[in-house]
Structure formats: structure tokens, C-alpha cells
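I am writing to request your help with a piece of structural work I have in hand. Here, with my thanks, is the record as I have it:
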Amino acid sequence: MINTKKYNNFINKKGFSTLFIVIIIGTVALSLALTLSTSSLWSIKGSTDTKNANKAKSLTMACAEVALETIRENNNYTGTDNITLDGDSCNYNIINTGGGTRSIVISGESAGVIRKLNINTSSFNPLVISSWQEI
């Protein structure tokens, strides 16, 4: 004859062990899912920031080209101008630094990302750029 007390005790311990293993596996799976979703969100944010930075840089470069073309067309031009492209804006300031030299300060902004550029020219005909640097 089987001792029912020992048998019931064995069944209860087996059920507890199974429940404990299921809880551990569920916790590990949930932790893994949360980690993957969090890292995916950070990756998406990073790629959006990179896209906005590249867009701001392209906008600043386009603004620089407009400023250089302005100097090429009118050697005496000094002043500030604003340009809007695709909803984003940039501005440039052309400063006469004496003789045939000009300093151009350019700033472009896209989705809160600001890129700045400083260009110096050393002559007009032909237009010679002595420095071009991001600031």
C-alpha cells in the first residue's frame, strides 16, 4: 500500500518546483524583452539625431555656397542674409576684413541641431578660399 501522505507531499513539492521554474523563465523572458525594446528605442533616437545633424550640415554647406556666390557676384557685398530650405533655416554674415579678404560666418539649424561654419577668402578674381572650418 502507498503512503498517501508521502505521495501528496511529493506531488506538492513537484508542483512548487514547476511553478518556481515557470516564474524564473518568465522573469528572464520579460527582462530580455524589455532590454531589447529599450535598446531599439535608443537606436532609433540615435539614427534620428544623426539624420538631423547631417541635414543641418547640408543646410549649412548650401548656405555657404550661396554666400560665396553672393561675394562672387558683388565683391563689395557685406551684411547678413537668411535662407529657408525645406522648412529649415540658415543665415550667413559676410564681413569685410580689408582689401580682397572676407570672413563669412554661417549658421544652419535643423530640428534643433545647429551647425556653424567659418570661411575666409583671400581674393576675388578668382575667388580663393583660404580657410573653411566648422566651429
